[in-house]
Automatic annotation (TrEMBL):
Record domain DUF1254: where: 94-221
Pfam assignment, any one: DUF1254
Stretch forming the signal peptide: 1-21
Keywords on record: Signal
DUF1214 domain: residues covered: 363-471
Top-level taxon of origin: Bacteria
Protein name (database record): DUF1254 domain-containing protein
Keyword Cell inner membrane included in the entry's annotation: no
Keyword Signal assigned: yes
Species annotation: Rahnella woolbedingensis
InterPro entries in UniProt: DUF1214, DUF1214_C_sf, DUF1254, DUF1254_sf
Amino acid sequence: MKIRCLALVISSLLFTAGATAQSEPLTIPHPAKFEDLSMPSPDVKMPESYVKAVAQQAYIWGYPLVNQFNRRMTITQAPYPALNGGMVPVAPMGQLSMLTNYIKPEETFVTCPNQDVVYGLGFYALDKEPVVIQVPDFGDRFWVYAIYDARTDQIGNVGKPYGTKPGFYLLVGPNWKGETPKGISGVIRSSTEMANMIPRIQMDDTPEERTVIQQPIRQVMSYPLSQFDGKMKSFDYSKMPSIGDKPDPQAGEVKWVVPDKFFDQLDNVLTKVPPLPGEQALYAQFRHLVDAGKKDPEVRRWMNEAAEQTDKTVIADFFKWKNNGVAAGNGWNRSKNNAEFGVDYYNRTGTSKSNMFDNKPDETQYFYTDNDFSGTQLDGKQSYTVTFAKGQLPPVKGFWSLTLYNERHLFSPNELNRYSLGTKNKDLKLNDDGSLTLYISHASPGEDKVKNWLPAPEGIFSLYIRAYWGEQAIIDGSWQPPKIQKVQ
């Protein structure tokens, strides 16, 4: 009886509510604008636990952006296009510097470099002036100009996959309202005033290629709009001087993010980089923290302690390939949202730590692993084979490669001066059944296998497949990398 009465009461209430809703529509207050919402009080005394919790979040979120700004600050100190330490292209703000060969194996500017392409590098401050980018005629070879904003997202589509024509292109900042000069083929708008460009031009590993590629490389340039005259400029990068000290490969990548300096540099990021839609509250919390640290030395000490701890734990864990991207099959992981991160802070920060400056998925897809097929760490004390079945090479419109990195995600010098194998190698030997086996080991696998040998260091290492301009099977993930088998 009680249950029946309760049901009648509920039914009555629902009927009444429905009748009310039909006769008198419910009025929902308009949500307050962000600027009308309550903000953190500057006078609040935050406890250590709260400070460290927010500081850790700020460090994870801000790591890629501080990384970017610190690279720009360093690279653009060069008074003219040059090679830092004789290895890495550097240039003044607004200009570009190009290599003329594969990057040298001793470099430490960036982790996971490759020896498939000839690289270039330029950094820009687009609130000062737009930049003109020259595109020469590259013929049939694969090429792409990867242009990044302050968040390490790529902007624009410039390269072979997009059918970009030779000519002049204008890179402008988010607030530029000028007129496009005659002779400019297209305008690329950056979402932030801070931008950088890394051209990648395919080069096969042959003496003939090294000669032929020099002509178009000379015309890969960028310069302020005020210097544009409609004529294709040229620069002989082979004569660039070496400046600065040579790096120490044993030290690993240059430490672009230093925990006890991080929050001073984050202050600049919060000012220079506008929030994405929905990030305003995040910015408010981080700004409140930074301001509190300026006023209170104890708060700043807690912030620094949190940054140091986060660097050793959360950030360090991104160096393990299992923590990057998504599973790709056979023990490999693959990149996810590479250079199109948006608010995917996880993969953005992971990439910034492990393999900064990916290309977008439609330009390149990346596959990587620290382990063999059994899940055991790859180690130069062992020997391995990687066999691509007939017809199962990475399906690409561009080209592919398999690269080996040491425990620092850099190259380890070897007797062949060889760090990758793939399309660029014209003398790879196929098996009788049409499959391709690559041999991974510290010791030579034998004279008959040397052309297919990728030398490994004596210690631990990782493997990394690049698929440039992938076919649909690469893009949708249906192609799987081959098993890495330990030789018994």
